[in-house]
Amino acid sequence: MSEVPSPRLRISDQDRESALAALGEHMTAGRIDIDEFGERSARVTAAKTRGDLSEVFADLPEPRPRYDTPRSEPEKPASPWAGISPAQRVMGALLPILFIATIALIITTGITWWFILVPIGISAVGEGIWGKGWENSHKKLGKQRRRELDG
Predict the structure, then answer these.
(1) CA neighbor of 133 nearest in space, from 94, 90, 85, 96
(2) How far is it, in rounded angstroms, from Cα 73 to Cα 76?
(3) Phi-psi label, residue 39: left if phi above 0, alpha if psi -120 to 50, beta otherwise
(4) Domain map (residue ranges) of the chain
(5) Which residues pair with 10 in a beta bridge?
(6) Which of 12-16, 19-23, 104-108, 133-137 has the lowest mean pLDDT?
(7) Model's pTM, two decimal places?
(8) DSSP string, 15-46
(9) Are 18 and 26 spatial neighbours (Cβ–Cβ below 8 Å)?
(10) DSSP label at 10?
């Protein structure tokens, strides 16, 4: 058997927000006019206890304010990997390595300069397949790695 909370119990800002939202629904439904909404909102803002809020809603049907509703969890920041497929991640990580390896091969083995077109071609094909997200995926991966090293 649940105990009815005392009308003298203090309310939170979240309880006041719930009451204001309920008043807005009553105004939308036509139960109260704009002037009465203003008067009642001022009383809700000044309310200290559940009893004070109950008086504001005494002559109104549901909806009524919800007390002690759990706060929603704060939104987690978007993952730096959001919107990047696993294949893009792999290619974004390998592409800079491929450029460095190609330049090293050209310098050390004397392979002609046009060999650099291989990583450039892979970049072009990647952008053609994956669109605009591809061109920044290797930049996002680099920034993420720098954050991990700094943090």
Answers:
(1) 85
(2) 8
(3) alpha
(4) 13-56, 86-150
(5) 49
(6) 133-137
(7) 0.45
(8) HHHHHHHHHHHHHHHTSS-HHHHHHHHHHHHH
(9) no
(10) B
What pLDDT score does 67 carry?
78
pLDDT value for 137: 52
102-114 pLDDT, tens digit each = 888 888 887 777 7
At position 134, the amino acid (one-letter code) is: W
Which is nearest to 24 in space by CA: 11, 38, 13? 38
What lies within 8 Å, CB to CB, of 65 at 6+ separation is: 15, 16, 18, 19, 22, 53, 57
Residue 17 CB neighbour total at 10 angstroms? 14
Contact (Cβ atoms closer than 8 angstroms) between residue 86 and residue 77: no
Confidence at residue 71, expressed as pLDDT on a 0 to 100 scale:
54
Place of tokens 């006041």: 16
Show the DSSP H helices in the chain as ranges. Answer: 13-29, 34-46, 50-56, 86-109, 117-130, 132-150
